[in-house]
Every structure is written in structure tokens, then in C-alpha cells.
Amino acid sequence: MVSCLSHTHSSQRASPAGSFRSPDNHENVRDVPVETLISYLVAAKRALSSIHHVHRATALLNEARSTIESTATLVARTKYLRRSLYAQLKILRSVQFELEGNAYVVKQEANVTIKELETTDRRLQDNIQLLKQTAIHHGFKARKPLDENGEELEVDPKNTLFDFVDDQPVITLRQMVRVAEANVNAARSSVDASIRNLEEDLQQVNEVLTDRTATSSSTKSDLQPLGIPKQLKLLERNAHNMAESLESLVQHFDSCVNAIKHTEGAGAAVAKNFTSEELPEGVNVETFQGPAEPMSEDERTEMLHVLRNDADQVEDVVAEIQERAADMDAQLDRILIWRASCEASYKDVFKAFIFLQKIGDQLPAHLAEVDDFSSYWSVEKGKIDECMVGMEELCDLYENFLAAYDGMIVEAARRKGVRKRMEKIVQEAQTQLDQLYQDDLTEREHFRAEQGDYLPSDIWHGLDVLPSQFAFHRSNDEGLDSIPDLPKETVASALKRLKAAHGMGEAGER
Length: 510
Known about the structure:
Blueprint (H helix, E strand, L loop, with lengths): L3 H9 L21 H14 L3 H83 L34 H43 L9 H4 L4 H34 L4 H8 L11 H5 L7 H155 L36 H14 L9
Helix pairs in contact: 1-6, 1-9, 2-6, 2-9, 3-4, 3-6, 3-9, 4-9, 6-9, 9-10
């Protein structure tokens, strides 16, 4: 008879030394003490408690198979959803870039227009500053008006060119510009916020899909770990070997029962020391007291020899069953960890899918925001263009006013020069007339002295009349003090600016 424990145990592990001896070298085991047989029985009975490991191994194997099958389905679903999400994410990225491009075109146009507006506004402010800096020469200032009593009325003095300007159009235009710019900036902020929210939402989806990569819970190896098929085979092999080991332990127990039955007094000793509750299921005290099958002495010797060898290996077999049970627990834990990581990955994908649904619901609002921004800019651009036209007209008006004032200075100087030339001519003519009068008067006196005594008084009634005397005088007093006496430097500066304005020289300082 070959030891069942030796055969089973040696198939997985090296048999302990002396666990099996050839029948040709059997020691004398004919007289094995009853106490030894009972100790074999007790150890065998205790070893049979390993059956719960075998039962658990079957449950572990079933759970592992079920987990792998359900997880494989979950992995397939996760991969499909992930591919679908990435495809949709790519489409939404294209939509985002299209929205950003459209908004960028409008913002660039707005930037150009705003810069043109700022340039025009600076020009207007420069002209206003020139008007404020250009003082009116005191010679041009009009006299204060008189009231009914001939007393001067108090009026606001006008000391600079700006005092002659109505600044209300400037205020109105600048207010319109500020309102338009504020509206454009508000619309720009709104569309920027919309695009930024879309970007953040898409980034959130992308992060949900990729965050677990860093922790190796959604990588390709996690979704389909290479060790799972191997682990399943190991589980099956362990469960099979554990079942074989348990079967060997059962056979060993049966051998113990058989040996006791074929040993005189052993059955009575078992009945004395054990109760049915202390024996394995299906085995009772009467089993040891029943008739034994006939067995030769050589067969009994062989049986006892195998029994002794198997008894030496019982603890190793039990330890092996426990070790395999622990291995199966560890393997199942790895499978369950894989299952948990796949579930976490699926939850991530499902979470990303919910986010993507939310983005899809909000996408029409993002599209409308960009369209509204474009339409709103068209309206505000018209207002800004209108303001720029008004500013440019004011700039032209103020520049013409400045040029006209310079022209007025030159005109005043011209009139002053003309009046001086006229006075010079009058002075020269008056001097000549006075000289002619004196000469005529002298000649008349000389004639009267020489010839007057010889001529009767009534021969020429104009003989003794004095010569005609002429004098120049103003035909009216208008404009007598209307021409101011301007400094040469003032006139020269004004003339220089006029020439520069007509491209005849460089502009002078006011």
C-alpha cells in the first residue's frame, strides 16, 4: 500500500525525510502501541478541520471568476465611454477654439477702434490745452458794456481762447465715449468669462479622465492587468491541490480507523476516550467496534508502515493547505483591488460624462454669448464712430480757431502798418501844403508891395484875398483805438505758425 499523503504532498513539495520507505526496508511495526494509534487518530481528526479552508477555496474561486467576468464587462464599458468622451471632448475643443477665434476678431477690431478713439481724444485734448494756454492780448479785449446810466457792467472776463469756446459738446462727446467704452468692456468681460468657463469645464473633464493616471488606477495595465489570467490559473490550481490534500487527509483518517479496528483493544480505547461529537461527521464510536475486514499480517504491517509515514506528514499537509488558502486570499485581494480600481475608473468616466452633458447643455449659451458680443460691438462701434466724427470736427474747429487767432494778430499788425503809412503820407502832404501856402502868401505880399499902389481896388475883387489853406482830418472816429499795438515777437510767432500750418516752415511755440 502506497502512502496517500506521501504521494499528494510530494506532488507539490519535497517530502520530509523518512516520509516514505520502501516495503523492503520496513522496520518492525507489527506492535504499534494503541496510544500511538489513538494519537494518529487525534491528529488526523484535527487535520480534517482544514475542510473549511477547502470550502472557502471554492468560494474564493467562484468569487474571483465572478469578479473577473463582471470587471471585464465593466472595463469594456469604461473603454467605450472613454473613447466616446475623448471624441466628444475633441469636438468641443474645436468649438471652443472657433468661439475664441470669433471673439478674438471682434476684440481686435475693438482694440483698433479704441486706439483710434484714444488718438482722436488726445488730439482734442491737445487742442483744448492750446486754447487754454493762448492768452488774449489786452489790446484785443473789448470794453465793458454800459448800462442805462452809462456805467460799466460786470461780465466774466475772457482771458484765453478757451473762454470763447462752448465746452458742452466736448463734455457730451466724452460722456458718450465713456459709456460706449464701458459697454464694450462689459461685453468683453462677459464673453471672456463665458469662454473661460467653457475652457475650465473642458479642463475639468480632461482632468477627471486623466487624474488617476498618476496613481496608476486608470492606466491600460489597470484596466486589463496582465497577471489576471495567471492569477486565475493559480487559484484553480491551489483549489484543486487543496481538495486533493483534503482527500488524502480523509484517506489517512480512514486508515487510522482501519488500523484501530485491526488492533486488539484499540476500539475499546477509542470508545473510552471519545464521544461521537468529538469525531468527524459520519464517524461514531460504533465504527471502531464493528467487525473488520479480513487482513493478512503482511497487509497489516504494510498498512501500519504507511500510516506511520503519513502521520509524520499530516502537519505539513495541513500547513500547506493553510498556506495555499492564504495565497488564494492574497490573489483574490489583488483581483478585488483591480476591480476597485476599474470601478473607480468607471466612476471617473461616468463623472466626466455628467460634466460633458452639463457642458452640452450650456454650449448654446456660450455660442449666443459670442454672437451677442459681435452684435453688441456693431452697435457700440457705430456710437464710437459717431463720437470720433464729432471729436474730429471739434478738433478742426479748434485748430481753425487757433489759426484764425494767429491770422488776426497778423491782420492787426497789417492794419497798424497801413495806418502808419497813411499817417505818414498825410503828414508829408500837409507839410507840402503848408509850404505852398507860405510861399503863395509871401509872393502875394511881394506883389501887393510892388504893384498894389498902382492898381485901383475894384479892378479885381480877389486881389487882396488870402490864399486858400488846406488841412487833413479824419472823416470819422471809428476804429481810432481799434488796432492794438502788438509786440513784434507776438506778430513774428503768429506769422511763423501760419507759415508752418501751410507747409512753409516749422511751427513756433505759443
